Backbone:
């Protein structure tokens, strides 16, 4: 099983990671539908007994697949080198978010969350500026920016659509990653 996983291409790891992660987060939503109005985003699930396991698995499994994606990049161009490092950093941020509940280690959790989102934005813009653009990537960048702004706005409210905006942000980022990892040999 492990040998089969390590033989996949980097973009396939992101497909699998985001697919499992989103599936587990949807399970969390079904287990506690109140989460859709609560304004703690995905972190809400880390503080509720019935959702803490699928929430933790969602983040840890996606972090594992980011690490696998990093290790499966064989190209030596600048974008590949950048992605090898940044995927590991993002995986570590995801582990950090998982092990620091927002109800106990509030500031540490916020640092991990903010660092992850900022790293994802910087990575997206780096890839677009360095490697060219296409309409799909423009659309995904727009989704990331819009959902990121909504997430930031919802931070100041007691209720809102934080989970929904975070979900859109993460799926859009995964789309950008997959787009470039599929064509990494053509990147600069």
Residues:
């Amino acid at each position: 099983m492990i040998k089969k996983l390590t033989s996949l291409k980097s973009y396939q790891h992101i497909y699998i990671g985001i697919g499992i992660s989103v599936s587990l987060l949807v399970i969390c939503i079904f287990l506690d539908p109140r989460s859709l109005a609560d304004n703690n985003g995905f972190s809400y699930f880390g503080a509720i007994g019935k959702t803490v396991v699928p929430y933790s698995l969602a983040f840890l499994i996606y972090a594992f697949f980011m690490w696998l994606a990093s290790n499966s990049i064989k190209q030596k161009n600048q974008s590949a080198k950048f992605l090898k490092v940044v995927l590991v950093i993002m995986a570590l941020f995801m582990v950090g978010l998982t092990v620091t509940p927002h109800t106990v280690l509030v500031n540490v959790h916020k640092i991990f969350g903010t660092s992850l989102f900022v790293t994802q934005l910087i990575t997206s813009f780096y890839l677009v500026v360095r490697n060219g653009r296409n309409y799909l990537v423009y659309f995904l960048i727009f989704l990331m920016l819009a959902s990121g702004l909504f997430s930031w706005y919802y931070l100041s409210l007691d209720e809102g659509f934080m989970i929904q905006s975070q979900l859109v942000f993460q799926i859009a980022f995964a789309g950008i990653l997959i787009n470039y990892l599929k064509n990494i040999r053509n990147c600069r």
About this structure: The two ends are 33 Å apart (CA to CA).
